[in-house]
Design goal:
With 139 residues, the chain is of the alpha+beta class. The chain contains three helices and seven strands. It has one domain (2-138): Gcn5-related N-acetyltransferase (GNAT) (Aminopeptidase), CATH 3.40.630.30. The protein has a seven-stranded mixed β-sheet with strand order 1-2-3-4-5-7-6, with helices on one face. It is globular, with a radius of gyration of 15 Å.
């Protein structure tokens, strides 16, 4: 699989705001995964200064079950190795909050319950906006 970065979501036309994410994370960058000749999925991120916001990772139904989700996630995390990452548990489509929390924990994410846990990487105003959804940090 090869990846490329884009400001456009080539898989579907949805925006983070349409999916329920706060607009503070936009503009978002998409890492699109390709297995020639198909675009098979994407993951997303936004450079927020002292941390990255990382969005959901999606593989098209026709390409699931081949390890592409893990490969795309690994490529994103390797690309964003230089700062902590914040993600928000935002269940969309067929996903539940419990499934998302299990995925995040499996990847080493830790729940953020108070501003003090992230005060070294974000301003309180940013925390207040992002904490509208369950928040997790990867350090």
């Amino acid at each position: 699989m090869i990846t490329f970065a884009s400001k456009k979501n080539w898989i579907d036309e949805s925006t983070p705001s349409q999916k329920g994410y706060p607009s503070i994370i936009e503009p978002i960058t998409y890492l699109i995964g390709c297995c020639y000749p198909h675009m098979v999925g994407y993951t997303s991120f936004s450079d927020m200064g002292d941390f990255y916001f990382v969005g959901n990772t999606y593989i098209t139904p026709a390409h699931r079950g081949h390890g592409l989700y893990s490969r795309l996630l690994s490529e994103r995390n390797e690309y964003l190795h230089d700062k902590p990452k914040i993600t928000l548990a935002n269940p969309i489509e067929d996903t539940t909050l419990e499934i998302l929390e299990q995925q995040v924990a499996k990847q080493g994410g830790v729940a953020v319950d108070t501003y003090d846990e992230v005060s070294d990487i974000m301003a309180r105003e940013v925390y207040e906006v992002l904490s509208a959804l369950p928040m997790f940090v990867y350090r």
